[in-house]
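Hi P.,

Sorry for the delay on this. The queue was packed all week, but I finally got your sequence through. Input first:
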Amino acid sequence: MSELSSAVCSITATQRRRFLWAAWWTGAPNHTPFRKPDAAKGGARSLEEALAEAEQASGRHLVVIEAYWARAWTRVLRGEAPPPLPRSSGSDAQRSRAATVRLSAWDVLGVPPGASLIEVKRAFRQKALQTHPDQGGEAHAFRAVQRAYEKLAAKLGKQS
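Then the structure:
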């Protein structure tokens, strides 16, 4: 099986207000027959924590896809068939982009809302080192970190 161009992660909320993640990095998720994830785990307290756990398990940056796949995996674990694929118009790429969880600039940098400019700069430097392509990261992840920093720096710079 060929490796995915982007490793993916699906995250869904559980009944106990926690988050379950399922990640695929050796092949894309498939409905019929259902392709089990390369790794999955529940119990995260937030979307960000779930994504961080998934990225640590995979050892790479993950692109968040629709929660359908994590919900389908929970049904498969219970011995049930996965639910029917969601109906939607447009291409697969459009559906995937539309279903992607959008993290706020604060979440991308991993700082709490209301952090100071110094804290934002410190977090940016750390995330930039983790995601920079020269350091083994992926370009799109690095660009997301740059955009988040620029947005917060502009916002916090105006407040000073």
